[in-house]
Design brief:
Layout: H1 21-32, H2 38-45, H3 49-61, E1 81-89, H4 94-102, E2 107-112, E3 119-125, H5 128-139, E4 145-153
Antiparallel strand pairs: 1-3, 1-4, 2-3
Helix pairs in contact: 1-2, 2-3
């Protein structure tokens, strides 16, 4: 069976929460429209409103759903410069570095990775001047960061992501 045909939640991982078909349908609906009403959601997945409230509450409590947010168009929101910044860090410094990076304005995403560098950071700023300041004055000032390399993003598109319902 190809990976594309394996429903999410059917392969157990160390941190995976068991999800049934209704849970996956709820996730698909919420990912498509996070503002959908509970009544409409319940109608779309053919369950009662009480069941929908209970299931969403459980998905939040089990941290399958970690929040409800708006998706922004960075350029239209005034963040016209995006870059991935790769970091080489001191061994065993990840926890402190990740804590400090989360507090730097314009840092959108921080990931510990394997390969040629240790950390990948997505930064979105209004312009190149602010990006330069964030990288040279904020990120490089974090204790444990040995070096950085910046990759300017020219264009980006959203991928399909996981398929949560058939």
């Amino acid at each position: 069976m190809s990976e594309e045909n394996v429903p999410p939640g059917s392969v157990s991982g160390r941190t995976a929460v068991p999800l049934d078909d209704i849970d996956r349908q709820i996730l698909a609906q919420l990912l498509g429209d996070g503002r959908v009403s509970i009544r409409a959601l319940a109608d779309q997945v053919h369950i009662s409103r009480a069941n929908a409230y209970t299931r969403i509450g459980r998905l939040v409590a089990e941290e399958v759903i970690t929040g409800f947010t708006a998706q922004l168009n960075p350029q239209r929101a005034g963040l016209g410069t995006s870059a991935y910044v790769t970091l080489m860090i001191d061994q065993n410094a990840w926890r402190n570095i990740s804590r400090e990076l989360r507090e730097i304005p314009y840092v959108e995403h921080v990931t510990l990775v394997t390969g040629d560098f240790d950390v990948l950071v997505l930064v979105r700023t209004p312009d190149n001047s602010v990006l330069r300041r964030i990288v040279l004055e904020s990120i490089q000032a974090v204790p444990g960061v040995r070096s950085t390399r910046t990759w300017l993003v020219f264009d980006e598109v959203r991928g399909r992501g996981a398929v949560w319902s058939a």
